[in-house]
Design brief:
single chain; alpha+beta; Adenine-n6-DNA-methyltransferase TaqI, Chain A, domain 2; Helix Hairpins; five-stranded mixed β-sheet; four-stranded antiparallel β-sheet; 13 helices; elongated
């Protein structure tokens, strides 16, 4: 590729001196529990920002002398070179590492934040050179061979890093808001689905309202606990129906929803199979309609719940059950209740003893749910939870957008396709 003016390329071993790490003897207690930060890939995997300030384990000066690791300066770049490859950080304190990390102690002509982002941008190249028969590992020699392009002037490097860091800060702030809003939503669900809303629009309290004992704990007097089968119809695609009618090679207009298509309360259609409409029509019991509620009953996402909003688009495939709310039960309310800890705890208890978590139809039908007798109360509860969910969805969309912006900026700025020289000129002009 043709590099922009004042840009060049160098191997990583030309950015600074490369170091491998080591582990002091774990049987020598005098080596451990000291003041020296000792970084492992596990430490890097837990970082939420580019910067590292501490490690899970520390070693003593005796431990440092007792192995081949090196004490390295702040501002270096540390990379996990195995188990797994590709975590990157900038330590802000003196540190050393174990053998699962490689470190570049940078020359003064390089901005550490810029090199951090440049390595992240090229991380797939790093992973592709992993070697080893037991597990992938990047050797110091292989790491040395990677070439990166960069602006020769350090102020330009720093300005690029500043732009990318600003986006990273926005992402970090948004993720913190998401975590806070998730806690708010969880707390709201716990309150609303145990106490409900009175006729004045307030949460009930045992000080002012009548409550009663139930299999799900204390609930309002106006509520009733039922087995799911007593208030809803539950079914699945029978095994013989799948064998006799489904042939994914044929394809079709109808999406056959599998357990992998429902993740974290969302429909994931990145990997789908289809069946013809005529097949779906032949199997009306397992056809999916708007307001039907789906629940996964086997696998990693067991107990994930989703209400469908469209007709004539989906059909049950194996590992998902369909729940149809009965009379005087609002589907949206049932959806949020099935997602609540009151039900998810039941599912966890039922599947805790199995190697591969799974629920039978009988177990699903016997799940206990608490239902307000007043449909209006069901709707009010649902609307409040949905309102909190809408805020969460908005923040999630904002996070996705910011990450997309970051990806585009990295492509533009770290290849020199777009220059930050106008920003540099403004900065320099402001300082004069």
């Amino acid at each position: 590729m043709t590099l922009p003016r004042s840009w060049t390329s160098k191997r990583l071993d030309e950015f600074g001196k490369l170091f491998s790490g080591s582990t002091p003897s774990t049987t020598n207690r005098s080596y451990w529990g000291g003041d020296i930060v000792w970084v492992t890939p596990n430490d890097l995997s837990k970082l939420k920002t580019p910067y590292l300030y501490d490690s899970a384990k520390r070693i003593t000066k005796e431990g440092l002398r007792g192995c081949s690791t090196s004490l390295l300066p702040p501002g270096s770049i540390v990379i996990s070179s195995r188990a797994p490859i590709g975590y990157v950080a900038i330590p802000k304190v003196e540190f050393c590492t174990n053998q699962g990390c490689k470190t570049i102690s940078l020359h003064n002509s390089f901005d550490s934040e810029y090199v951090y982002y440049n390595i992240l941008f090229n991380i797939d190249r790093l992973k592709n050179i992993g070697e080893g028969t037991t597990f992938a590992e990047v050797s110091k020699k292989a790491l040395s061979s990677i070439e990166l392009v960069f602006p020769e002037e350090k102020p330009e490097q720093a300005k690029i890093a500043e732009v990318l860091s600003t986006v990273d800060c926005a992402i970090e702030h948004t993720e913190a808001l998401i975590a806070k809003q998730q806690r708010i939503k969880t707390g709201l669900m716990q309150d609303l689905l145990a106490r409900g809303i009175d006729k004045h629009g307030n949460l009930r309290s045992e000080k002012t309202h009548q409550f009663k004992d139930s299999p799900l704990g204390r609930i309002p007097e106006e509520w009733e606990v039922k087995e799911l089968s007593a208030c809803a119809f539950i079914t699945k695609l029978a095994g013989f129906e799948f064998t006799n009618y489904f042939d994914y090679r044929i394809g079709g207009d109808i999406i056959a929803l599998r357990a992998l298509n429902i993740k974290n309360e969302r429909l994931d259609l990145t990997n789908i199979q289809r069946i013809p409409s005529v097949v779906s029509e032949k199997l009306p019991r397992s056809k999916i309609f708007a307001e039907d509620i789906l629940i996964t009953y086997i696998g990693a996402y067991i107990g994930d719940v989703l209400r469908i909003e469209e007709n004539d688009k989906y059909h049950l495939a194996p590992n998902i059950a369909k729940i149809v709310a009965g009379h005087s039960l609002v589907p949206r309310f049932l959806e949020v209740f099935l997602r609540s800890s009151l039900v998810q705890r039941q599912i966890k208890n039922l599947t805790a003893v199995t190697a591969t978590p799974s629920l039978t139809m009988t177990q699903i039908r016997r799940l206990m749910v608490a239902i307000p007798s007043d449909v209006n109360e069901q709707n009010k509860i649902t609307l409040r939870i949905q309102s909190a969910g809408n805020v969460l969805n908005s923040l999630a969309a904002q996070s996705i957008k910011l990450r997309s912006i970051k990806t585009a900026l990295m492509q533009d700025l770290l290849t020199g396709e777009r220059r930050v020289t106008p920003l540099l000129a403004k900065t320099q002009g402001a300082g004069e």
